[in-house]
Amino acid sequence: MNIFHELTVKPWATDQGKVDDLHAGRTSSRAAKKLALRVFLAVVAVLFTLLVTAYGGRMAYEDWRPAPQVSLLWANTLMLILSSVALQWAQYSVRRGRMDAMRAGLLAGGAFAVVFLFGQLLAWRQLGTMVYFEVTNPAIAFFYLITGLHGVHLLGGLVAWGRTVSKVWGDFDVAKIRQSVELCTVYWHFLLLVWLVLFGLLFTGNNLDVLLKLCGIR
Amino acid sequence: MEYVAHDASAFAPPAEVGEMELYHPKTWVGKYIWSQDAKIIAIQYAITAIGIGLVALVLSWFMRLQLGFPNSFHFINPSNYLQFVTQHGMIMVIYLLTALFLGGFGNYLIPLMVGARDMVFPYVNMVSYWVYLSAVLLLIASFFVTGGPTGAGWTLYPPQAILQGTPGATWGIILMLVSLALFIIGFTMGGLNYVVTVLQARTRGMTMMRLPLTVWGIFTATVLALLAFPALFVSAIMMLLDLTLGTSFFMPALVSMGQQSEHTGGNPLLFQHLFWFFGHPEVYIVALPAFGIVSDLLSVHARKNIFGYRMMVWAIVAIGGLSFLVWAHHMYVSGMNPYFGFFFATTTLIIAIPTALKVYNWVLTLWHGNIRLTVPMLFAIGFIFAFIHGGLTGLFLGNVTVSVPLSDTMFVVAHFHMVMAVAPIMVVFGAIYHWYPKITGRMLNDTLGKFHFWVTFLGTYAIYLPMHYLGFLGVPRRYYAVGGTDFIPASAQSLNAGITIAALITGAVQVVFLYNLVWSYYKGKPSGGNPWNATTLEWQTPDTPPQHGNFGPTLPSVYRWAYDYSVPGADQDFIPQNVPAREVARTGHKT
Would you call B570 helix, strand, or coil by DSSP? Predict the structure, then answer.
């Protein structure tokens, strides 16, 4: 993106005019949908950054009581990683014209994602039945809120995934499907990254020190 | 007549971008209700926003009636006074101004000004409007539920926002929070469209630096909104959970109405940080489109290029960036660390630099211009007045030591109304008078327009100038009745009565504007395609109003920036953006 370079030109100057006349009208070579997804991911990133910041800010108070550990989350994390890997495989395959492998990758990716979501629900139930469970404990409330929001985003992804899957049987426009698979893959990788940050930073213990160091406070 | 020839445009290949598959509806309902045409969606947004804005206007009357003539009206009691204050603020800031500038003007102007046939995702654009409408309907519904709408103040600070005893603490606040969350979801859909359309769907020759400032303003404001609204979204969800599930994100342990609450350990300050991380950029989400639009109005109606175009773009971007670093200046009295206050006061005052730069450039655009005192121009000049006044009082409130004694007084109300109510609404009016001929093909009535301007301009001054003085006296904001105090003289009440009369008159005169909108639609003078002799692409469409697809069979190519007014040597005092140099009529010049 050469937008920062563009900001320095003088559009009223005659010489610049000759250059500008030939401009094709796009800022980025990416397709509109790909750019839109990236802008959306920026919005989602802000959402989760704010949540992490709020969590960290709350952690710093003396009365902070960490949420009990739910070991099932490790298995869920593995499911999400597998889901991302499968979609990556689908993308790799569609780019090489191997449609059967693409279908297999897509289906596996979706299946692992669904298993992840069920796993998260199970983790919710486990936490809810623990003796430490207290809805007024901010750590526990944050856990439900953050995992819930992450899950909702993955559910939204599954809607797009479902639309893609419904089109990959019979005759289809390969270029369009390729784009859909690529978009799904980017979204899945992003949600995996978000999950790894959330899981590593918030739900594997009292990582206040790490958070404060990240913020440059310690 | 001679022509200049041999510009690079003669060799430019045809446009590669901008052509898109348009959805062509076959039924009236498909065309005007479930419309995917950005222009229709814009009008849907505008009508909805103005409709709900009128509700907010009436609410402000009710407030003023109580303040001007206390206890004279039986339908106003302390509870619904607070509901009027809250709903007036919330509606005006979010459901009117944000929706009108971005959903209304953004949808109408972006595709036309960048030379696109429509937004890049027309279906998502349509859904965006319907989600917005749902948010508005939920907000309206809150007026009819048990307990009425929330009266927590537009900032919705917990703990009081969700404690029993605050008006609307049962259903009103729930509907408010859900409505806000919906609004944000709807806006995000629209916002993605605006950003991607500006970046990816411009026509050939339309570089970013050839964009009219209107587009720059709306584009930057959209980016701000996309990045700021998540903070409001998160805080709305968290408060909803505190309210419905009994979590303690924001709610501390407290005793309310003699009872110990079930909450423990929530942090109300966290809400304030989240709210203002959204709330301050929100000021610029409203202001930046106004900045952009007013720049174009001034340039067109003064027949001069905008002074310092590049600086204007940089200033818009700089203000946008800085607006994320000043949020805590709304929290000086929250008990925060004084060093924090110092930091935020400094960043706040730094924003004054690009902002002042813009004001100078507007004034310098007028300097030696061929000024035409059309109605849009009058409103644009009115904006400069209101914005300078509001901006200067911002310097008072940005400084901690001056701000603390003025906190929660009428001075604050006067300040933010001048800077983010009167100033942007002046631009809204100016813009409607300016673009109405393109939208309908008819001019708005000039006499009615001038009457509307003068009463609105003088009326808003009559309302807000004395209000600063009330603030200096220490008259608090949000109070249903001040009661007997030693420091507020009895004469303050006379001033309040005067302000109320001015507010009633100024509000009532808006009927003239609405009448003008309707009357001119049927009886107005036909405008032709380009009544203001403007350069930007929306005035160069083959049809007025523009048809679906905007530009006929071929998209225009752009050969110049948006501000070629009074170019020396050219026969006409404007050269449209799609006119190549070789086609510019010049008498007595040869190249």
Answer: strand
